[in-house]
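Field reference: sequence -> structure
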Amino acid sequence: MDSPTALAIDGRGWFLVKERQTGEEFFTRQGEFVLDENGYVVTPDGFVLRGVSGFNPAQTENVLIDSTGMPAGSDPRASMVSFRIQPNGDVIVGLSDGSEFIRAHVLLQDFRMPANLRRILPHIYKSVPEAEAIGVPQVPGSNGLGWLKTNVVEVAEVRWTVKGAFQRHDPSVQGALTVTGLPTDLGIRGEGFFVVRDPATSELFLTRVGFFLCDGDGFLQTYSGLRVQGFVDSSGTVIGDVIIDGAGAPEVSDPGSFFVGFEVSRDGSVWVMRSDGTKYVRAKILLRHVVHPERLRSEGNGLYSGVSDAELVDWDESGSSVGLIHQGAIELLHVTRDLVNDRREIEFFQQGVLRRTESETDLALTGRGFFVVRRPFAVEESVTRRGRFRVNRDRFLVTPQGERVQGYSDPGFTEIGDVKIDDCCKPSTSDPNSTMVGFRIDTEGVVSIDLSDGTTYSRAQVLLRDFAQTYSLQALGGARYRGNLEARPSGNMFPPGTRTLGKIQSRALEVPTRPQRLMLPPSSGVQLFITGEPGGSYLVQTRVTNRRWVTIGRVKLGATGEADFFDVSNRKRSYPAYQVIAE
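Structure field:
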């Protein structure tokens, strides 16, 4: 691997890396490091390599490669032109005046029992007492530590643990994370539970099932309406129901901007994005653990009561969690069939990719909102995001089923009704005998008509409707939905680009993004929890009576670098011999 920051450890030891948001330190042997825009040495996941500076070796800090600390004899105008990392961890920086100096030293940590390190991400591990750390981080080559090799990366070794599938009933058992892509799906890597509260009784429950939704008021909740707990303010002082909305924006943001999305970082911080590009922490989801998980009582659907009996551990002063949160992933081991069935009843409206077309009446939405359509002379309306429209012989803009698109039907944008594309209502300055020769629909939904005399005027405007709880929309078939009261409609229709509504892209269609279909593990057998190279393919083998190894299945690791494999042929609680090898 031709990169000066690609490092491998020849011998014992682990690189020390730091999670920037939480400040927590972790360990890895995967040395596929790169330089970020500020000159820090980081992993592909953004963890910063730790070491000491060449001019302050008493303090562990992030490894930064720049010209800071150049020797007194160097030209003060000199800049960094090269660097290299020595086998003993010295980071040598070359300056433009030809001089060199030691900018930093990479450190390694050793463990007596490294197999007990707790994996929290592909190649990233957390220290636990069972791993038995040896002293403090030291330079490579000292006290039995290995030396560094550059331009090479250690190939990850597949790890696996085996347990009976019956152990899924233990609420603290950890399973593999399945990537779903839904922003409100949250998975836990490590110990800990989400804490959820019944808003009617204030009773607390614990769960590791991160099937969540945001309700119309922004509360992050379970499918049954229990609210997720954490810090509800950006300062991290008030604990309560986590709200994800545009409140609490910093003063530097545009007062006219609005909430457009959110991200959940590994430490549970909820980052809100506004339409002006402002990004800030709105809340923080916290994880907790209990002293006696065996005292928790199952309430079904992965939910547990008996929190006080299980002795819930208090929040610590920093609010740090006992594990990391992965957005867009789910730990299926604790998911029940009822929850999967509930999920199949829910419509998750995510922004899909746009596909260009040649039709002016093909309309795609870039953001929230729905087109409103209505059958001729009918009162009831339905909504859709499928913008494959056409102009019928009566010049109405309609769906393939003949439903008429709703909006302002007059050039003055005062009357709500069926959108029509014709040369009616021409301006008085145009030729009375002119005819329509073309039309277009802009990003705000305005329908502009081109007349044969060169006049262009606005004939109508497509409007949109939004819903606070889109998951409550009732499916009618054909990508149409009934905007029932449970979905909390916005009331009036509004022009695209206003409020939190998206805009319209003509000559394009949205390709919907469908959530991954989730398949539950079998209810019996033996489970192998396999971790290794993300995307890697492995063979699972078991030993038969004549000591031959027989392949019983294949497994491909996902983006999280892990997967569950179940040997359903073994229905007992005893563990036969297994091995997992690269395919």
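Note: Helices lie at 337-345.
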